[in-house]
Amino acid sequence: MENWNANCLFKIESTDNYMKKTMIVLAFCMAAAFTVQAQSNVGSTDYRTSLGVKFYPGAVTLKHFITDKSALEGLAYFHWGGTRITGLYELHYNIEGAPGLQWYIGPGAHVGFYGNKYASGTQVGIDGVLGLDYKIRQAPLNLSLDWQPSFEFGSGRGFYGGWGGLSVRYVF
Fold this sequence. Notes:
Blueprint lengths: L14 H21 L13 E7 L3 E7 L4 E10 L2 E13 L6 E15 L4 E17 L4 E7 L2 E4 L5 E2 L3 E8 L1
Antiparallel strand pairs: 1-2, 1-10, 2-3, 3-4, 4-5, 5-6, 6-7, 6-8, 7-10, 8-9
């Protein structure tokens, strides 16, 4: 039986479809982790690619520098009985006198697949990010702390300022 949300044109996903989408996202993230190869350091960054977890809400994070100052970050959140896939473009800037520490800012977008009392169906939105990124010297470890405000489109949706958190990543 198909359920439709009266406030939205999107079909509410059944639990089976939700689990299938979640498993596809996890498989994609794992495949990306195994296909990434170690690369030489570029410009002012101390690493090129990193993979790890982000705390609050829980997410898998993959970050890859495409130039010495810009990176792409993909996030797969698992929160509120749903999954949210986010892509960010980040511009990184050195902090003088603090080797390995950079601050970053950038735009992004997301799509969420929810099925709970707060949201149901598919939601899309735009994101921003502002944070600090630190590569631990002599260890294959990267830490970042950021704020990721977002705006979701749709009935009953809007601005959310509570996204962001601490990421711990293994550096390739």
